[in-house]
Give the backbone structure.
Amino acid sequence: MSAQSARLPARDFEEIRLAEALERGRCPICDARQESSFAALRGLAREGATDRGLRAEMDKGLSFCQPHSVGLSKMELQQTSSQLATAVLLDAVLRRRLATLKKLSSSDAGTQGRGLAEIADPKCPVCAGAAEASRTAVNRLLALSTDSAWSSALGAGEICLSDLLALWAAAAGGPRDSQARWSGILAAQLGRLEVLQKTLAEYAHNSTVDRRHLITSEQQEAGAASIRLFGGTPDRDRNR
Ligand SMILES: [Zn+2]
Ligand SMILES: [Zn+2]
């Protein structure tokens, strides 16, 4: 968490959320994705079973990925103490899937291969929404980096590796002034990762039984930070 990001200028709700994430030491893009998934799952749990538009999309092959199938059932359980809406939705998915699989099973091997490749993508609407939220957050953050407070907060912020690369790719594909702003942020981020790597190496060096008493809290925190770097910011508790 960086002290200089404590007062980021924000003009709307979206910017307030991005600022809050940075101020709390969270990856703002992971946060945007999680917020989107949470809202989508909550909506599905409440109204998905009676949503005609959704049912029509399901007839065209829309399904749920593994994490969001589980996510939907957990969300519904949490909100209504039942999993009936989940059952209604999964029944609709299964019915459609079963028809496709039966048809596929009686076709030739080449058609089966192509068909299987096609249905491997569950066309999960929650994933699609999260990907869109991710792109929006990336573009918004790059636009906000014209402000020096945002630029330094992005340089010091705990952005996960995957989203750092997404920001980098978007900046590299953007206009020249955006590329120039990004190079400053990137240099600061690489500096942050260098410090993290050194501390992590010290932690790893102290992992043997005879050296464990030498582990510092800073080294321990580097271990946790490295998991967040590769695994993304953990989902925050949302009790709304
Ligand atoms: Zn992230
Ligand atoms: Zn999904």
In short: The two ends are 25 Å apart (CA to CA). Residues 27, 29-30, 160, 163, 232-233 surround zinc ion (ligand 1) (CB under 6 Å).
